[in-house]
Structures are given as C-alpha cells and as structure tokens.
Amino acid sequence: MTPQDASRRTRELCGLAPVIPVLVVEDAGKARPLAEALVAGGLPVLEVTLRTPAALEAIRAMAEVPGGHVGAGTLISAEDVRAAKAAGATFGVSPGATDALLAACEEEGLPLLAGAATASEAMRLLARGYDMLKFFPAEASGGSAALKALGGPLPQVSFCPTGGVSPGNAGDYLKLSTVPCVGGSWIAPADLVTAEDWGAIEAKAREAAGLSG
C-alpha cells in the first residue's frame, strides 16, 4: 500500500464521524458489546490501543461487528503492525512515526494514521506521501491554537487531534478546516465498561456523534 493510498483510506475513515473512540480494553469478553454500543450510537470507527494483554483478542471480536471499522492504536514496531493486521485491524494509529513503522504498514497494507506534533514531523510525513495525520499529544502540544497555527503553512495536511480531547474542547478542534475528527477516550469510561452499561455508552456515543465545530 502506498502512503497516498493509506492517507486516502484514513481520510475516508476520519470523515465517517466527528469522534473516534480511543479504547483501552481490559476484558476481551466485553469487546463485542462495547463495539456494538458505539456503532449503534453513530461512531463506527474505533481505535483499540495495544496497551493491554486483551487488546488483540478485543480487536478480533470487534472486527466481527457489522458496520464497524476497528483499528489498532499505539503501534510502535513492525511486530505490532503484523500482529494488529493478523487480528483483523483495518487501520493503525501511532503516537509518532519511524521509517521502520511506516515501511511495515506499507508492506502489510495497513493504512496508518501516523502521529505528529510539530511542523517538522508533519513535513517529513507529507514528503513521504502522508497527508492525514494524528496530532498527538494534542492538548500538551498547544491544543487547537497550535493546530490552527500549523494549518497556516500546511493547509494540505489534515489532523485527528488526540490526547486531552474532551467534550469541552472537541468543538474548538472540529471548527478547524484541517480537522475532520478528533480522538477521545471519554465515550467509553472504565466504570461504564466494567458495569457493562452499554446503554449509557451508546448514549455517550450518540452525543459525541452530534459534535461539530
């Protein structure tokens, strides 16, 4: 997969809903009903972070949910990429980008939302052919004001801000012309997942699906 094809696909995914839920799944047995609740609430694109032993099994379960697009987050190495693809991930997300990681995604045909926080990082990825990126860590890197400033010299690059994004500031990002969506973890908080309160999570998803700039 070429970087241009990868960016085209990630741009399509980022255009499906204003929020991509960022999920830390501790119990793979709850993965499918969690995904079903989020998709039913209008958030079809899901990122499962590879931060728990259950993550790959959770991706496998979520990949079977009709209407969902499940990706693997926190991709760091080529091994992560291969494991995520084998588990059924249809896209990847990384906090940054290395040549080895980009090459692995291109070789495996896994569209990557690569992370960038500075103009130099964004320019380097753009030069390789990636123009749909993750802005991370968003709030710690200056928030919507910093991203607006980056959009001046780099209007051809779009971003999905993630890291510190909440219902209170999501609209500030979404009003930027370079931001089709944001990534957020508030939609599926651990207490609701533990309680298996899928109705409450679906309601949070529906609220998030209605966000705009």
Automatic annotation (TrEMBL):
Organism per entry: Roseovarius indicus
Organism classification: Bacteria, Pseudomonadati, Pseudomonadota, Alphaproteobacteria, Rhodobacterales
Quaternary structure, from the entry: Homotrimer.
The gene coding this protein: eda
Segments forming a coiled coil: none
UniProt keyword annotation of Lyase present: yes
Pathway: Carbohydrate acid metabolism; 2-dehydro-3-deoxy-D-gluconate degradation; D-glyceraldehyde 3-phosphate and pyruvate from 2-dehydro-3-deoxy-D-gluconate: step 2/2
Highest rank taxon of the organism: Bacteria
EC number(s) given by UniProt: 4.1.2.14
Keywords: Carbohydrate metabolism, Lyase, Schiff base
Gene3D superfamilies: Aldolase class I (3.20.20.70)
Pfam families (alphabetical): Aldolase
Name assigned to this protein: 2-dehydro-3-deoxy-phosphogluconate aldolase
GO molecular function: 2-dehydro-3-deoxy-phosphogluconate aldolase activity
